Fold:
Amino acid sequence: MKKYLKILRECPLFSGIEEENLLRMLTCLGARVESFDKKYTVIAEGNPAKYIGIVLTGSVQIVRIDYFGNRSILSEIYPSELFGEAFACAEVDAIPVTVIANEPSEIMLIECAHILHTCENNCGFHQQLIFNLMKDLATKTILFHQKMEITSKRSTREKLMTYLMMYAKKVNASRFEIPFDRQELADYLEVDRSGLSAEISKLRREGILESEKNTFELL
Amino acid sequence: MKKYLKILRECPLFSGIEEENLLRMLTCLGARVESFDKKYTVIAEGNPAKYIGIVLTGSVQIVRIDYFGNRSILSEIYPSELFGEAFACAEVDAIPVTVIANEPSEIMLIECAHILHTCENNCGFHQQLIFNLMKDLATKTILFHQKMEITSKRSTREKLMTYLMMYAKKVNASRFEIPFDRQELADYLEVDRSGLSAEISKLRREGILESEKNTFELL
DNA sequence: CTCGTTCTGTTGAAAATTCAACAGATTTAT
DNA sequence: ATAAATCTGTTGAATTTTCAACAGAACGAG
Structure:
């Protein structure tokens, strides 16, 4: 576990926890680490939502696929970030999304019940963990609001431009690389891929942006 | 305050709090009650997100209106439910949505900082309140997932049917009244109103549903 | 290095959404 | 009760999106 300390210290779940206590706490929580190859399923839709996941290395996508196979990408999770916490904390009996490794990834899994309920050792950090979870869930809610601001736009162009402008603001640069290929971007924006490609070309012709592969520059 | 006890006991923020402690706690938290007429703004976009609101009577809508005046309805909040908690807990400096009274409503407002930080009286309920907020935020995240499941559908028909089927499941009845008029439903589903009306008529002609005003029956 | 797979941009046709306008129904205000 | 305002369903035209198909580019495996 020791080699993950650097990442775990950045994890919002453990903020305010002293490093010397962290390893002990992980044992107490029954944390375990699993590895997943690219495209492998970390948690499948329909399973009980018992675990909170922490990305240690690599990244995962939270996706939902409907009856007709349409994929919708809800978010991407990077090292030190959490996933599954909302479903675990709300104690829903089946998780409605699938978590897929985006690349070879190491994932820490912690049974949520171990966090929420005081352990026999009474290790005393539960209050801090619950506070951290609350903060994290509030932040996630904000992120969902942002995603809904994007997808609530009615046209492909508006969705794309809203996304790019938000991303530019987030990284504080007018030139940046996005974490999606075309199909993934389309599934995130909830539009048709070919229409998205066409729109990007159009924006380029109109001099509104430059782009090359996944790198964009707003002009 | 006493007359609101019945509703406040149902409020997820206060679950696990003894009734005899509730009134005292409200004073400690500096809770206050304000009244709003129909269509009046409870909290306007852009203001600092300091307050958690609790609907006591009536109801409010959480809406976002973009540059071009397109309205998007994010959710409706009914008595004993919370709003604004995500923005307040995440301590964002400007709330990105507007809260509007749906009908004459009484709203309790509590400064979030009073909940998160232990008060001078050390009244000892903060841990429970923080746990409750965490639970509430997890539940809200689930609700957002459901809304995104609706709006991620590509056609008006699919959005409408997904919404109606979810609503039927929620109230456990195939015949039910929805809380939206046509324009509001369109703004919630993020589609064009006239197209929505047309789609409802079409579904009725096809024998898939019955409807009269805001009452629907799935066949 | 080569072959096979995946990704991307383009295109045209079909389908759906949006938009504006309107008339009848319903609700609200006086 | 009447008038004014709002809400709803319909329609047709303009615009967009979706869908399927394809060819070249980029990538990965062996």
In short: The radius of gyration of chain B is 19 Å. Residues 156 and 191 of chain B are 6 Å apart (CA to CA). Chain B touches chain A at residues 64, 66, 70, 72, 74, 85-90, 92, 96-97, 127, 130-131, 133-135, 137-142, 144-145, 147-149, 151-154, 190 (CB under 8 Å).
